[in-house]
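Entry for BJW complex. Fields follow.
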Amino acid sequence: MQWEQVKDWLSAARSIAVLTGAGISAESGIPTFRGEGGLWRNFRAEDLATPQAFARDPLLVWEWYAWRRELIARAEPNPGHLALAALEPRIPEFHLITQNVDGLHDRAGSRAILKIHGDLWDLRCTRCQRQWTDRSVPLVELPPRCECGSIARPGVVWFGEGLPPCVWEQARRAASGCQLLLVVGTSAVVYPAAGLAPLAKSAGAKVVEVNVGDTPLSDLADVTLRGPASEILPVVCG
Ligand code: BJW
Ligand code: ZN
Protein backbone atom coordinates (compact mmCIF):
# COMPACT_ATOMS: atom_id res chain seq x y z
CA MET A 1 0.00 0.00 0.00
CA GLN A 2 1.23 3.50 -0.89
CA TRP A 3 0.81 4.88 2.63
CA GLU A 4 3.06 2.09 3.99
CA GLN A 5 5.63 2.77 1.28
CA VAL A 6 5.76 6.48 2.19
CA LYS A 7 5.94 5.64 5.88
CA ASP A 8 8.98 3.43 5.19
CA TRP A 9 10.68 6.10 3.06
CA LEU A 10 10.10 8.73 5.75
CA SER A 11 11.51 6.59 8.52
CA ALA A 12 14.58 5.58 6.48
CA ALA A 13 15.47 9.00 5.04
CA ARG A 14 18.32 11.00 6.59
CA SER A 15 17.46 14.13 4.68
CA ILE A 16 13.91 15.36 4.10
CA ALA A 17 12.49 18.59 2.73
CA VAL A 18 8.82 19.49 2.99
CA LEU A 19 7.06 22.11 0.88
CA THR A 20 3.71 23.26 2.22
CA GLY A 21 0.96 25.43 0.78
CA ALA A 22 -2.42 26.77 1.85
CA GLY A 23 -4.04 23.31 1.82
CA ILE A 24 -2.27 22.30 5.03
CA SER A 25 -4.03 25.13 6.87
CA ALA A 26 -7.43 24.54 5.25
CA GLU A 27 -8.55 22.30 8.07
CA SER A 28 -7.59 24.97 10.57
CA GLY A 29 -10.34 27.03 8.94
CA ILE A 30 -8.13 29.22 6.75
CA PRO A 31 -9.40 29.49 3.17
CA THR A 32 -7.03 28.45 0.40
CA PHE A 33 -6.33 30.89 -2.42
CA ARG A 34 -7.68 28.99 -5.38
CA GLY A 35 -10.20 26.53 -4.06
CA GLU A 36 -13.78 26.95 -2.98
CA GLY A 37 -14.21 29.61 -0.33
CA GLY A 38 -10.85 31.13 -1.26
CA LEU A 39 -12.34 34.34 -2.56
CA TRP A 40 -12.73 37.50 -0.51
CA ARG A 41 -15.31 39.95 -1.87
CA ASN A 42 -14.88 38.31 -5.29
CA PHE A 43 -11.20 39.23 -5.61
CA ARG A 44 -8.64 36.60 -6.60
CA ALA A 45 -5.19 36.52 -4.95
CA GLU A 46 -3.79 37.76 -8.27
CA ASP A 47 -5.99 40.91 -7.94
CA LEU A 48 -4.79 41.81 -4.45
CA ALA A 49 -1.36 40.29 -3.84
CA THR A 50 0.51 42.67 -6.13
CA PRO A 51 2.47 45.88 -5.63
CA GLN A 52 0.20 47.49 -8.26
CA ALA A 53 -2.97 46.68 -6.28
CA PHE A 54 -1.37 48.13 -3.15
CA ALA A 55 -0.25 51.30 -4.95
CA ARG A 56 -3.77 51.74 -6.39
CA ASP A 57 -5.74 51.07 -3.22
CA PRO A 58 -3.72 50.32 -0.06
CA LEU A 59 -6.84 50.34 2.11
CA LEU A 60 -8.54 47.63 0.04
CA VAL A 61 -5.44 45.41 0.19
CA TRP A 62 -5.09 46.05 3.94
CA GLU A 63 -8.76 45.15 4.47
CA TRP A 64 -8.06 41.75 2.89
CA TYR A 65 -5.06 41.23 5.15
CA ALA A 66 -6.99 42.45 8.22
CA TRP A 67 -9.73 39.89 7.45
CA ARG A 68 -7.14 37.15 7.13
CA ARG A 69 -5.31 38.22 10.31
CA GLU A 70 -8.57 37.84 12.23
CA LEU A 71 -9.23 34.36 10.83
CA ILE A 72 -5.67 33.24 11.50
CA ALA A 73 -5.55 34.68 15.01
CA ARG A 74 -8.56 32.53 15.88
CA ALA A 75 -7.19 29.40 14.16
CA GLU A 76 -5.17 26.59 15.71
CA PRO A 77 -2.54 24.35 14.11
CA ASN A 78 -4.15 21.08 13.00
CA PRO A 79 -2.82 17.49 13.16
CA GLY A 80 -1.04 18.02 9.82
CA HIS A 81 1.08 20.89 11.20
CA LEU A 82 1.67 18.93 14.42
CA ALA A 83 2.79 15.78 12.56
CA LEU A 84 5.46 17.75 10.66
CA ALA A 85 6.67 19.36 13.89
CA ALA A 86 6.96 15.92 15.49
CA LEU A 87 8.83 14.51 12.48
CA GLU A 88 11.51 17.22 12.48
CA PRO A 89 13.64 16.10 15.47
CA ARG A 90 13.72 12.51 14.17
CA ILE A 91 15.38 13.40 10.84
CA PRO A 92 19.07 14.41 10.85
CA GLU A 93 18.57 16.94 8.04
CA PHE A 94 15.09 18.42 7.90
CA HIS A 95 13.85 21.56 6.18
CA LEU A 96 10.32 22.87 6.17
CA ILE A 97 9.74 25.22 3.25
CA THR A 98 6.41 26.99 3.47
CA GLN A 99 4.58 29.29 1.12
CA ASN A 100 2.16 30.08 3.95
CA VAL A 101 2.32 33.34 5.83
CA ASP A 102 -0.04 32.26 8.64
CA GLY A 103 2.56 31.22 11.23
CA LEU A 104 0.76 27.97 12.06
CA HIS A 105 3.93 25.90 11.55
CA ASP A 106 5.67 28.04 14.21
CA ARG A 107 2.73 27.60 16.55
CA ALA A 108 2.78 23.82 15.96
CA GLY A 109 6.42 23.73 17.14
CA SER A 110 8.34 23.44 13.86
CA ARG A 111 11.79 25.04 14.06
CA ALA A 112 13.67 25.01 10.76
CA ILE A 113 11.05 26.95 8.80
CA LEU A 114 11.90 28.64 5.52
CA LYS A 115 9.13 31.18 4.91
CA ILE A 116 9.61 31.87 1.24
CA HIS A 117 6.55 34.18 0.93
CA GLY A 118 7.16 36.07 4.18
CA ASP A 119 5.03 36.40 7.30
CA LEU A 120 1.62 37.96 7.73
CA TRP A 121 2.50 39.32 11.17
CA ASP A 122 5.48 41.30 9.82
CA LEU A 123 5.04 44.85 8.57
CA ARG A 124 7.42 46.99 6.54
CA CYS A 125 7.47 50.74 6.00
CA THR A 126 6.99 51.74 2.37
CA ARG A 127 9.34 54.72 2.84
CA CYS A 128 12.10 54.03 5.40
CA GLN A 129 11.90 50.19 5.00
CA ARG A 130 11.81 49.67 8.79
CA GLN A 131 10.44 46.22 9.62
CA TRP A 132 8.56 45.14 12.71
CA THR A 133 6.14 42.52 13.97
CA ASP A 134 2.61 43.43 15.01
CA ARG A 135 0.27 40.66 16.14
CA SER A 136 -2.55 42.92 17.22
CA VAL A 137 -5.99 42.01 15.96
CA PRO A 138 -7.62 44.22 14.94
CA LEU A 139 -4.84 46.58 13.91
CA VAL A 140 -5.07 49.99 15.56
CA GLU A 141 -5.42 51.79 12.23
CA LEU A 142 -5.87 50.80 8.60
CA PRO A 143 -3.64 51.17 6.73
CA PRO A 144 -1.12 50.85 9.58
CA ARG A 145 1.63 53.46 9.72
CA CYS A 146 5.31 53.50 10.57
CA GLU A 147 6.79 55.80 13.23
CA CYS A 148 7.98 57.98 10.33
CA GLY A 149 4.35 58.59 9.33
CA SER A 150 4.34 56.59 6.10
CA ILE A 151 2.06 53.69 5.26
CA ALA A 152 3.28 50.21 6.11
CA ARG A 153 2.77 47.15 3.94
CA PRO A 154 2.48 43.50 4.91
CA GLY A 155 5.85 41.72 5.11
CA VAL A 156 4.90 39.20 2.46
CA VAL A 157 5.94 38.48 -1.13
CA TRP A 158 3.55 39.65 -3.83
CA PHE A 159 3.41 38.68 -7.50
CA GLY A 160 6.23 40.24 -9.46
CA GLU A 161 8.42 40.59 -6.36
CA GLY A 162 11.52 38.54 -5.66
CA LEU A 163 11.57 36.05 -2.80
CA PRO A 164 13.88 36.83 0.16
CA PRO A 165 17.17 35.81 -1.51
CA CYS A 166 18.80 34.10 1.46
CA VAL A 167 15.69 32.12 2.39
CA TRP A 168 15.08 31.15 -1.23
CA GLU A 169 18.69 29.99 -1.63
CA GLN A 170 18.31 27.76 1.44
CA ALA A 171 15.05 26.37 0.06
CA ARG A 172 16.69 25.56 -3.27
CA ARG A 173 19.59 23.90 -1.50
CA ALA A 174 17.24 21.89 0.71
CA ALA A 175 15.22 20.68 -2.28
CA SER A 176 18.22 19.79 -4.40
CA GLY A 177 20.02 18.01 -1.53
CA CYS A 178 17.22 15.96 0.04
CA GLN A 179 16.47 12.27 -0.35
CA LEU A 180 12.75 12.86 -0.13
CA LEU A 181 10.58 15.91 -0.83
CA LEU A 182 7.10 15.92 0.65
CA VAL A 183 4.80 18.39 -1.11
CA VAL A 184 1.69 19.17 0.91
CA GLY A 185 -1.41 21.16 0.02
CA THR A 186 -0.17 23.36 -2.78
CA SER A 187 -1.73 23.88 -6.21
CA ALA A 188 1.83 24.16 -7.54
CA VAL A 189 0.97 26.94 -9.97
CA VAL A 190 2.95 29.74 -8.34
CA TYR A 191 6.63 30.02 -9.25
CA PRO A 192 9.38 29.79 -8.27
CA ALA A 193 8.02 27.59 -5.42
CA ALA A 194 6.43 25.20 -7.93
CA GLY A 195 9.89 24.58 -9.42
CA LEU A 196 11.21 22.99 -6.22
CA ALA A 197 9.67 19.57 -6.87
CA PRO A 198 11.13 19.20 -10.39
CA LEU A 199 14.45 20.42 -8.94
CA ALA A 200 14.39 17.76 -6.21
CA LYS A 201 13.32 15.06 -8.64
CA SER A 202 16.06 15.85 -11.12
CA ALA A 203 18.60 15.73 -8.27
CA GLY A 204 17.47 12.18 -7.48
CA ALA A 205 14.99 12.69 -4.62
CA LYS A 206 11.75 10.83 -4.22
CA VAL A 207 8.78 13.19 -4.44
CA VAL A 208 5.62 12.49 -2.46
CA GLU A 209 2.54 14.67 -2.90
CA VAL A 210 -0.24 15.00 -0.33
CA ASN A 211 -3.28 16.80 -1.70
CA VAL A 212 -7.04 16.44 -1.89
CA GLY A 213 -6.90 16.93 -5.67
CA ASP A 214 -4.69 16.72 -8.75
CA THR A 215 -2.01 19.30 -9.44
CA PRO A 216 0.54 19.88 -12.21
CA LEU A 217 2.99 17.98 -9.97
CA SER A 218 0.92 14.83 -9.63
CA ASP A 219 2.47 13.14 -12.66
CA LEU A 220 5.99 13.92 -11.56
CA ALA A 221 5.46 12.61 -8.02
CA ASP A 222 6.63 9.10 -7.19
CA VAL A 223 3.60 8.72 -4.97
CA THR A 224 0.51 10.88 -4.62
CA LEU A 225 -1.55 10.46 -1.47
CA ARG A 226 -5.07 11.76 -2.04
CA GLY A 227 -6.85 13.21 0.95
CA PRO A 228 -6.71 15.83 3.67
CA ALA A 229 -3.25 16.58 5.03
CA SER A 230 -4.56 16.51 8.60
CA GLU A 231 -5.50 12.85 8.16
CA ILE A 232 -2.60 11.65 6.01
CA LEU A 233 0.38 13.32 7.72
CA PRO A 234 -0.21 11.93 11.24
CA VAL A 235 -0.31 8.42 9.74
CA VAL A 236 2.68 8.58 7.39
CA CYS A 237 4.89 10.68 9.69
CA GLY A 238 3.97 8.71 12.80
C1 BJW B 1 -5.54 20.38 0.46
C2 BJW B 1 -6.50 20.53 1.39
C3 BJW B 1 -6.33 19.65 2.50
C4 BJW B 1 -7.03 21.98 -0.07
N1 BJW B 1 -5.28 18.78 2.50
N2 BJW B 1 -4.53 19.58 0.36
C5 BJW B 1 7.17 31.11 -14.32
C6 BJW B 1 6.08 30.83 -15.11
C7 BJW B 1 4.93 31.61 -15.01
C8 BJW B 1 4.85 32.69 -14.14
C9 BJW B 1 5.94 32.95 -13.35
C10 BJW B 1 7.07 32.19 -13.46
N3 BJW B 1 7.98 32.66 -12.57
C11 BJW B 1 7.43 33.71 -11.91
C12 BJW B 1 6.20 33.92 -12.38
C13 BJW B 1 5.28 34.98 -11.92
C14 BJW B 1 4.57 34.64 -10.64
C15 BJW B 1 3.77 33.36 -10.85
O1 BJW B 1 4.12 32.29 -10.43
N4 BJW B 1 2.61 33.47 -11.48
C16 BJW B 1 1.75 32.31 -11.76
C17 BJW B 1 0.46 32.43 -10.93
C18 BJW B 1 1.50 32.23 -13.22
N5 BJW B 1 5.49 34.52 -9.52
C19 BJW B 1 5.98 35.56 -8.87
O2 BJW B 1 5.70 36.70 -9.20
C20 BJW B 1 6.90 35.30 -7.70
N6 BJW B 1 8.07 36.10 -7.78
C21 BJW B 1 9.03 35.88 -8.68
O3 BJW B 1 8.97 35.00 -9.49
O4 BJW B 1 10.10 36.76 -8.56
C22 BJW B 1 11.06 36.78 -9.60
C23 BJW B 1 10.69 37.93 -10.49
C24 BJW B 1 10.52 39.17 -9.94
C25 BJW B 1 10.21 40.24 -10.78
C26 BJW B 1 10.03 40.01 -12.13
C27 BJW B 1 10.16 38.73 -12.65
C28 BJW B 1 10.50 37.68 -11.81
C29 BJW B 1 6.25 35.71 -6.39
C30 BJW B 1 5.06 34.87 -6.05
C31 BJW B 1 4.42 35.39 -4.76
C32 BJW B 1 3.12 34.67 -4.43
N7 BJW B 1 2.49 35.37 -3.38
C33 BJW B 1 1.26 34.80 -2.77
C34 BJW B 1 0.74 35.80 -1.72
C35 BJW B 1 1.64 35.74 -0.48
C36 BJW B 1 1.18 36.64 0.59
C37 BJW B 1 -0.21 36.30 1.08
O5 BJW B 1 -0.47 35.18 1.54
O6 BJW B 1 -1.04 37.19 1.00
O7 BJW B 1 1.55 33.55 -2.18
S1 BJW B 1 -0.01 34.42 -3.97
C38 BJW B 1 -0.56 32.95 -3.15
O8 BJW B 1 -0.27 31.78 -3.96
C39 BJW B 1 0.32 32.83 -1.91
C40 BJW B 1 0.59 31.35 -1.85
O9 BJW B 1 1.72 31.10 -1.06
C41 BJW B 1 0.75 31.01 -3.30
C42 BJW B 1 0.56 29.53 -3.61
O10 BJW B 1 -0.73 29.11 -3.29
P1 BJW B 1 -0.93 27.67 -2.63
O11 BJW B 1 -0.33 27.65 -1.29
O12 BJW B 1 -0.50 26.62 -3.58
O13 BJW B 1 -2.53 27.65 -2.42
P2 BJW B 1 -3.69 27.30 -3.46
O14 BJW B 1 -4.93 27.86 -2.91
O15 BJW B 1 -3.33 27.69 -4.83
O16 BJW B 1 -3.76 25.70 -3.44
C43 BJW B 1 -4.20 24.98 -2.31
C44 BJW B 1 -3.99 23.51 -2.58
O17 BJW B 1 -4.33 22.78 -1.41
C45 BJW B 1 -4.88 22.95 -3.71
O18 BJW B 1 -4.09 22.12 -4.56
C46 BJW B 1 -5.91 22.07 -2.97
O19 BJW B 1 -6.31 20.93 -3.73
C47 BJW B 1 -5.13 21.66 -1.75
N8 BJW B 1 -5.90 21.38 -0.55
N9 BJW B 1 -7.40 21.47 1.10
C48 BJW B 1 -4.41 18.77 1.43
N10 BJW B 1 -7.17 19.64 3.52
ZN1 ZN C 1 9.05 54.44 8.10
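NOTE: The chain has a mean pLDDT of 96.
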